[in-house]
Amino acid sequence: MVTSQAAATRRPATSRPVTAEELLRRAEDLVPVLRAASEDIERARRLPAEVVEQLRDAGVFRMGVPVEQGGPGLDSVQQTEVVEILARGDASAAWCAMIGMDTPLYAQFLPESVAREELGDPDIITAGLILPLGRAERVPGGYRVTGRWGFGSGITHADWVVAGCFVHRDGRPEPGPDGAPGHWRIMLARREEFEVLDTWHTTGLAGSGSCDYQAKDLFVPEEHSFSLGHPRTPGPHATPEAILRNMPGVPLGVARAALDYVRELAADRTDRATSTPWADTYRVQLAVAESEMELGAARHAVYGSLRRQMEIIDAGGELDPDERVDTVLARVNAFRVARTIVSRLYDLVATTAIYRPSPLDRWLRDLTTMRQHVIAQDQVLQSAGAHLLGGTPHNPFSLGIVA
């Protein structure tokens, strides 16, 4: 069983940032710190305790806490910016930050008492998989939960864990609220109540500690369960896809770091075959320009679509199919474009890229692994196309559609 790295006692939170501007500045300050720790992070296959505390002290995990609750109240655009900045330092740290800050988003769907009393600490970290891979049998006062879930990014340092389940009653599947054959509900329990399995042996995002975890006959009170289709209060973060919006910050940040690295490398490098400086070498010029063009377009698509979506939601409007799909396509594209860019730069640098201390090899592995995430797969594109055409999405959740 993997032991938790969550600090037994919290450091004083009085110096934590309370504005978006301050948090963004602190994220920038962390870039060289995370970059220097990248090899240790990868070697540990989880975030070391000191890295977790550096992120916590910077206020990263509280970025989504509303201003009225003492947090900086970053919107989805600003959250993505923070994640993108951190990814320039280390992809695994940024990935865990993106996952771990979901606590205030989940709180929008939980009873007020749970949100206030148990998730009230703005620096609490949540991890886990919301997809319904477990079974929750209804019992008086709640559920008995059994199952095994994968990809628990950050679970080795989390305080709370979510676990998606299909609800059963008297041993039989319970229909969903809309008459669907299954009732998807998400359970919330303390990390210590799950068994964390040391399964995360991967080529990329190695430091994210995305281990499997399991439970057998775990009692979860009714008030510790929720559905993403039924928020407690309205608002821009009380929508099913709120936890997905900042995800493209990770690939965008890694691609930016790779481009900056190669541009700096090119300043002092000469082509061996022609003795021509890289700055005057056509293939280098083309590779850098193509990469900047593609990254710029992908980045503008992500932030432009998020801003438009936020404007509509903040005004209390409903997203039409094109507006809903816009952010989804930009998100998938960010993962694809980032890997294409880093792969191109890896080939450009050639054999130098495979040796340390070049970070290109790790960046390519990180992007290849995160590209396998369900949210970056063809199934999401199918769902977007089906929604535009009036068909049936195979993954409606990726579009923010939950019954």
Question: How would you summarize what this structure contains?
Answer:
The protein has helices at residues 20-44, 49-58, 76-89, 91-100, 103-107, 112-117, 249-266, 282-314, 321-349, 360-370, 378-389, and strands spanning 126-139, 142-152, 160-169, 172-173, 184-190, 195-197, 211-221, 225-226.
Name a few traits of the molecule:
single chain; 403 residues; alpha+beta; Butyryl-Coa Dehydrogenase, subunit A, domain 1; Butyryl-CoA Dehydrogenase, subunit A, domain 2; Butyryl-CoA Dehydrogenase, subunit A, domain 3; 3 domains; eight-stranded mixed beta sheet; 11 helices; 43% helix; globular; disordered N terminus
Description:
With about 400 residues, the chain is an alpha+beta fold. It has three domains: about 100 residues, Acyl-CoA dehydrogenase/oxidase, N-terminal domain (Butyryl-Coa Dehydrogenase, subunit A, domain 1), CATH 1.10.540.10; about 100 residues, Butyryl-CoA Dehydrogenase, subunit A, domain 2; about 150 residues, Up-down Bundle (Butyryl-CoA Dehydrogenase, subunit A, domain 3), CATH 1.20.140.10. The protein is about 45% helix and about 15% strand. The chain contains eleven helices and eight strands. Strands 1, 2, 3, 4, 5, 6, 7 and 8 form an eight-stranded mixed beta sheet that branches. Strand 1 and strand 2 form a beta hairpin. Helix 7 packs antiparallel against helix 10 and helix 9 runs antiparallel to helix 10. The chain is globular and about 75 Å long. The two termini are about 35 Å apart. The relative contact order is 0.12.
Tell me the number of helical segments per DSSP (H or I, 4 or more residues long): 11
Mean pLDDT: 94
By oligomeric state, this entry counts as single chain
Low-confidence stretches: 1-9
Q: Write down the secondary-structure element order.
A: HHHHHHEEEEEEEEHHHHH
Q: Please give the share of residues in helix.
A: 40-55%
Radius of gyration, in angstroms, nearest whole number:
21 Å
CATH class of the largest domain, named Mainly Alpha
State the secondary-structure class: alpha+beta
Shape: globular
CATH topology description of the largest domain: Butyryl-CoA Dehydrogenase, subunit A, domain 3
